[in-house]
């Protein structure tokens, strides 16, 4: 990593922005990397992640003692905005950087931090999230993967599904049931947060082909997998608290990601031009509507950053943010498909866009992929319906939804 690894918090965020912009100009690949959903593409994205690490930009907001730059929110936002402006490659270790890393910092032991965080930050180790199961998606507490204590190991049996990047990951952080009897009294009890090396005997990973034809998901099977007890993060049987913190990181504000959605609106404007709709009032109305949505989100990110810097509590905003950005993202890509009319039905295959100019063909193919991902985003991390329930009950204080006893 770069020798200059810290950021002077009293310094100018714009000065840091200029530093980042220059580094990205010198290091971002001149040609887009292949999709990360192929082995070749994933390996190239992984090498890019290591380049970020060596430059000191893998996680600028992480504390210095864990290998970050100690960046404040102004600097973090500046980095993200420049990253997306430069059209830098999609990040592929976000499960580790945004989820496991913060969880281990908060709940892990010092030995776990020393063992996992450096390799996570350098992208030597890729992590995936093992929460969802068949029949235990939205109702996460109904999970059935078991871990039985056997001396200084747990023996794990069960299945996880919809595991993002599971086919490329080295480790998985999973929720397992360690006390089935406790679940009879309270279903959130008796769950443990356990980290598992996917190369352990008894682990089988099966990639899943998604609706857009890519293999970004996997299902993971555990058959008598022996996992050291020392891999438990937090306390045994108290994993629900750790899991809720993980989901809070996943649902909460990712400072600077608004720039990604601004790029999407810019791409939509380009698509409108290529369709010959630049003077079409209905198309321009649609473009203006999603532009306003992204600008509202950008303003909200800056508002939350100011709130956090003043010591405000962002926990209550997590579900609001998750609901807004996922619905907004879907709206952007659904709008694009509507404006493409009959061409919006084309499957995202190169042969389906034969005859189109390269820019338009690439836009169509990417638009389909991103549209289907946007559909999934309204499900993972808690569906939009669940987020609305959380907002109504925990933020607005409305009566709770009737639930079966």
Number of helices: 12
Strand order of the largest sheet: 2-3-7-6
Number of strands: 7
> What are the secondary-structure elements, in order, as H or E?
HHHHHEEEEHEEEHHHHHH
> How far apart are the first and last residues' alpha carbons, in Å?
54 Å
Average pLDDT, to the nearest integer?
A: 87
**Radius of gyration, rounded?**
22 Å
Low-confidence stretches: 1-5
How helix-rich are the residues, as a percent range?
40-55%
Q: Please state the structural category.
A: alpha+beta
Question: Outline, from the CA principal axes?
Answer: globular
The share of residues in extended strands comes to 5-15%
* Largest sheet descriptor: 4 strands, antiparallel
Structure description:
The chain is 47% helix and 12% strand. The chain has 405 residues and is α+β, with helices and mostly antiparallel strands. A hairpin with a 2-residue loop joins β2 (146-150) and β3. The longest helix has 29 residues, at 281-309. It starts with 12 loop residues before the first helix and ends in a 10-residue tail after the last helix. 38% of the residues are buried. Mean pLDDT is 87; it is low at 1-5.
What features would you highlight for this structure?
405 residues; alpha+beta; 4-stranded antiparallel sheet; 3-stranded mixed sheet; 12 helices; globular; disordered N terminus
Would you kindly provide a brief summary of this structure?
The protein has 405 residues and is an alpha+beta fold. It has helices at 13-27, 39-55, 73-85, 94-107, 110-122, 180-185, 239-251, 258-274, 281-309, 318-339, 358-377, 384-395; strands at 127-130, 146-150, 153-160, 171-177, 191-197, 203-208, 217-228.
